[in-house]
Amino acid sequence: MTAFMNARHWYGLVGAPTDIGNFGCGAASGPAALRAGGFLDRMRHQGIVVRDMGDAEGPAEGTGIGEHGIRHVEATAAWCRAVRDGCGQVLADGGTPLMVGGDHSLALGSVAAASAHARKLGKPLHVFWFDAHPDFNTPDTSPSGNTHGMPMAAACGMGHPEMLDVGAFTPLLHPHDLTQFGIRDVDHGERAHLLRHGVRFHEMPEVRRAGLVSLVAEALERAERAGAHLHVSFDMDALDPEHAPGVGTPVPGGLTLDESVAALRLVGESGLTGSFDLVELAAVREAGGSRTVQSALELLQAFLRADRRLFVEPLAVRVA
Ligand SMILES: NC(=[NH2+])NCCC[C@H](N)C(=O)O
Ligand SMILES: [Mn+2]
User: Fold this and answer.
1) In this structure, is residue 71 part of a structural domain?
2) What is the C-alpha separation between 319 and 314, in angstroms, rounded?
3) Ligand nearest the Cα atom of residue 147
4) What angle is formed at CA 247 by the lines to CA 132 and CA 42, rounded to 5 degrees?
5) Structurally, how many domains does the chain consist of?
6) Most buried among 68, 130, 200, 287, using CB within 10 Å?
């Protein structure tokens, strides 16, 4: 039995300071900006245990442009493996990994850890993906060659062999168990992939019609019925640029901070979340302000405060 097993539930912050998946977009500044914004103190003051596991380490330089114009795929895979190991360690110690990026390619690493953990527990993996983009490109559909547009296709078993090799097995995720919210910038071939594989991707017109909270509630019901390990991946560009100007690929017409807070509160209340990402926090892109960091802090706080597991002492378990 590890030392933490009878402790209250905790989250483990795994930083991933890179923008290798969209070289130069500025997301490498995310983990430091969140720490400098006082995240850990703020949580401590509210009695929430977030252990800082430090930063994952990976190549500082890109590894060049390959077939189909795919950029830095070896470096991306190296970073994803480091994130996989960091998140895997938190899961093995009984905590919930909170991966802070960094660009969104890194979610392939956290999903690899989540998927292996879920398999060990005999649970299916469900993923909630809050994003302006589905990140469901493969090297042959990607218009940019940037790997941060590819992690979900790779998790579902489609993509460059380097990316398919990040997890212990492939696919890591069944496309039916992926639900996306806030989508409003879909590439042509990417849309064909999403439709062919039956991904639920809720685009902004539908979010406006049905409401983010009720779409999330529906998806939570499915996850609960399935007894799933839920992985939540929040790309800061899901928010409207008014609330998150500091991102590498802003798209107008996004989620409001209020509705996102309400949705994450609901996710937190469900107690289903087994792993969480907050990515594409490119604080350095924001001229003279910290709006994006403040939004990130509010989202995380809403989510964590709603998770009752963080406040309840577990019953002592007596081992005979
Ligand atoms: N995680 C992100 N910000 N992804 C943006 C992807 C943009 C575009 N669809 C691409 O593949 O290049
Ligand atoms: Mn994304």
Assistant:
1) yes
2) 15
3) 1
4) 105
5) 1
6) 130
